[in-house]
Amino acid sequence: MKNIAISEDHLFRKVYAKGQKIFCRHIAVYVLTDYRASRLARENPLKTKLNRVGLTVTKKLGKAVVRTRTRRILRAAYQQLEKENNIKKGFLVVIVARDAATTAKTQDIYRDLLYAFKKLGLIIREADEIK
Predict the structure, then answer these.
(1) Ordered DSSP codes for 30-71
(2) N or C: the chain end with fewer CB closer than 10 Å?
(3) What is the rounded distance in angstroms from the CA atom of residue 59 to the CA atom of residue 42?
(4) pLDDT tens, position by position, 85-128
(5) CATH number of the domain residue 29 falls in
(6) How many C-alpha atoms does 104 have within 13 Å on its Cβ side?
(7) How many domains does the chain have?
């Protein structure tokens, strides 16, 4: 299923100010509980909670071609992370590209995302599901 994007500026500011954060080599990840998640779950055809994801790539990183490529790689790495791991739902997730992200491959970003999500406690292990 396609991810729901964060498009409102006030949500980005709220996640930056109040959310948990992890800084990696290629990216920075900010996470905050989404209080609208249950309302969005009712609107969702599958009736499940979803993470709302926002990507930030600033003009400092390069021209439009570089920023678009970086955004595409961030999106692909997040989709791979969701497909291969059991991630907790109902959060606002903002992924910020850093300077090293412009030359990074999808697997580099994926490793950073995996590390960040483990540190933030957003990956559900098999033992946790049984409880």
Answers:
(1) EEEE-TTHHHHHHHSTT-----EEEEE--GGG-SHHHHHHHH
(2) C
(3) 37
(4) 999 999 999 999 999 999 999 999 999 999 999 999 999 876 55
(5) 3.30.230.10
(6) 27
(7) 1
